[in-house]
């Protein structure tokens, strides 16, 4: 794997929301680039625009100005159907609140995006992922019967089964206690390395940021890389 090859490039990305009291600028001229296989943290105070930035990168929302390139794809040229396809095949999402599908078993939650994408499930990869995440005995469990840590391990499996090039994690341990959060983070890092994905993780937690290859701070509406 060529680690010098950029997987994600943002050029002068800005986001302005229209609000009742007028335009509200959340992100201004954000430019940065992440190489294949890198693990990057974005840290910043509550309300600084971290989740907004992640939803732009995840093609869930559109920048007001600027360009986002994922791999070879200039995303501003895509229509909604093409964006959905890139999301399904290239990007794995992990949220603070897990977002599992309640009437689906743990296993069904993990396989849902691959099934929705109409692709074959790689059974070896699925078994390895379930074993890495320690979910062998919880395959048939319903989400409401899972602990917080187990729910997030299922969500990690769901994000990683399609072997996406880019994993976007928005405070993935934010609703777990410290010990559970640390275990879940270790499993996430192990699973990400297994599929050689690139990881962008949003966090409040300096000890999580310290474990990534690079750290950016979101402040004054833009990103500042820590040296
Ligand atoms: P963070 O994830 O860093 O806590 P967010 O990206 O969620 O911050 O939000 C940044 C700011 O943008 C907040 O002040 C929030 O209220 C505002 N915001 C987010 N989405 C919208 C929206 N759709 N319309 C207006 N303001 C928004
Ligand atoms: Mg947020």
Write the layout of secondary structure elements.
Elements: E1 6-19, E2 22-35, E3 39-43, H1 50-57, E4 65-70, E5 73-74, H2 80-90, E6 91-95, H3 106-116, H4 123-132, H5 148-160, E7 166-170, H6 178-194, E8 198-203, H7 206-209, E9 214-219, E10 222-225
Parallel strand pairs: 3-8, 3-9, 6-7, 7-8
Antiparallel strand pairs: 1-2, 1-4, 4-5, 9-10
Bound molecules: adenosine-5'-diphosphate and magnesium ion (MG).
Residues 50-51, 170 line the site of magnesium ion.
List keywords for this structure.
227 residues; alpha/beta; four-stranded antiparallel beta sheet; 10 strands; globular; binds adenosine-5'-diphosphate
Structure description:
The chain is of the alpha/beta class and 227 residues long. The protein is built from 7 helices and 10 strands. The strands form 2 sheets. It has a 6-stranded mixed beta sheet with strand order 6-7-8-3-9-10, with helices on both faces. It has a 4-stranded antiparallel beta sheet with strand order 2-1-4-5, covered by helices on one side. Strand 1 and strand 2 (22-35) form a beta hairpin. The longest helix has 17 residues, at 178-194. It is globular. The model has no long low-confidence stretch (mean pLDDT 95). Bound molecules: adenosine-5'-diphosphate and magnesium ion (MG). Residues 50-51, 170 line the site of magnesium ion.
